[in-house]
Amino acid sequence: MDVSEHQDESASPGSLVSEHQHYIYNLAYSLCSDEADADDIVQETFLKAISGLQNYRGESGIRTWLSRIAINTFVDLKRKQKPHVSLELGSVVCAAGTPERAIIKKEMQWCVRHVLLHHVAEDHKIVLVLRDMYGYSYQEIADILKISVPAVKSRLHRGRAAFYDHLVKSGCVSFVREYTCYCDGAERNEVCI
Question: Which domains does the chain have, with CATH numbers?
Fold first, then answer.
């Protein structure tokens, strides 16, 4: 079968990179929270995609195919890294609208990324990022990961539970409740996680 029957002009190597590089970088950064690692994942993803472009069958969209390659590259990278040692956070009291509050906001953003990056299983984290950060449907996630929709729902449920459990254990949940919200522009007494 001719590959050109299954791919449009946007699948040429040059346009593949230019059209999808920003998206793949954001996905990679969401998974690893490290600019250098995200750059490495993007580079490796496009090297693999371009070298495997002749094998692209068009059964899924180009973005879905690239996402799958990026996720697999991320998983390979994580396998090579050393295990992470957790940090425990304490609690600090401050009033809303103060400079301390801005520091707390940064700490909370770090805390959420830290928990997601280091304390949620890889297969659960990938589903959490795709669903909760990128808004993919259950079916789209199932297509990217080549698993069933019920498996996606199960991983999402377990991932959210693990994420919340670690937030509780690390003290971040009381941190959030104490400061009501770390999101800019959120109404008072609104928790945004």
Answer: 3-80 (1.10.1740.10), 99-179 (1.10.10.10)
Which two three-digit tokens encode residue 61? Answer: 């969209």
62-80 vs 13-32: helix axis angle to the nearest 10? 50
Using CA of residue 47, residue 52, residue 56, residue 60, what is the dihedral sign?
negative
Convert 19-40 into a string of H (helix), E (strand) and C (coil): HHHHHHHHHHHHHHCCHHHHHH
Which position has the higher pLDDT, 93 or 114?
114
pLDDT one-digit tens code per residue, 107-159: 777 777 778 877 888 899 899 888 888 888 999 999 999 999 999 999 999 99
CA gap 42, 37 in Å, rounded: 9
Q: Rounded to whole angstroms, how far apart are CA atoms 127 and 136?
A: 9
As a whole number of Å, the end-to-end CA separation of the chain is: 48
pTM flag (> 0.70):
no
